[in-house]
Write a structure and sequence with these properties.
Layout (H helix, E strand, L loop, with lengths): L43 E9 L4 E8 L22 E4 L9 E6 L23 E6 L4 E14 L6 H8 L1 H5 L11 E13 L2 E12 L2
Parallel strand pairs: 2-3, 4-7
Antiparallel strand pairs: 1-2, 1-5, 3-4, 5-6, 6-8, 7-8
Length: about 210
């Protein structure tokens, strides 16, 4: 069963592929969530869909915050609950498509060990396409993979690595901030490695950048 996602603690940016162009002018789609929603509140439905064509992934996206242990929430449920097939956007970070870093997590397997939506992230290669669809407006925000990395639990708790995954603002506790390079970044994260003491001992992370 998947382990919790990394602790948000108080940088290097992902390697940018040459074909990536500066992020276009930010569009006005309205807020994804109520600005008064507490970061400790439970998951909320979003008008977003995650698509990874090369992996045949199409998944709804829920907005999640932090657990009582200061971990990014990774909701679970009974066997065959739709939550296992849902991607989770960290709502304390950047908005997908805007200048900054948006982070989306997903389960690697379900309670029976069956593969879930992020089971094949290791197959992604630089240049592969990731799409965030705004379902209420049918707008597609396209990202291309920069790199795929695996971190140990200890490495993924390092502030420099957390900054790369979530952006500097969430790690420093100041909320989302524009990225220094003026681009829109997307991070996908899931569990990886071996199960040790009831939890996976690594995280697999995909870094991508918006391109048009």
């Amino acid at each position: 069963m998947p382990s919790p996602f990394p602790v948000l603690l108080p940088s290097e940016q992902p390697t940018i592929q040459p074909k990536v162009q500066p992020t276009p002018t930010v569009f006005a789609l309205g807020p994804l969530i109520d600005s008064d929603l507490d970061l400790r509140a439970g998951p909320v439905d979003l008008p977003l869909e995650l698509q990874i064509p090369s992996l045949e992934v199409i998944a709804p996206v829920a907005g999640v915050g932090l657990t009582s242990e200061n971990l990014m929430d990774g909701p679970k449920g009974p066997i065959d609950d739709p939550i296992w097939h849902t991607a989770f956007w960290y709502r304390g970070g950047g908005v997908p498509g805007e200048v900054g870093t948006a982070t989306i997590a997903g389960h690697v397997n379900d309670p029976l060990g069956r593969p879930e939506i992020f089971a094949r992230l290791e197959e992604l290669r630089p240049g592969d396409l990731i799409i965030i669809r705004y379902t209420t407006s049918n707008i597609d925000i396209r990202f291309h993979v920069d790199q795929v990395k695996v971190y140990s639990i200890q490495e993924s708790s390092d502030p420099a690595v957390l900054t790369q995954i979530f952006g500097a603002g969430p790690v420093a506790g100041t909320g989302p901030q524009p990225s220094p390079d003026g681009l829109s970044h997307l991070t996908l994260i899931t569990c990886a490695g071996d199960i040790v003491d009831g939890r996976f001992d690594r995280h697999r992370v995909v870094f991508a950048t918006r391109s048009e």
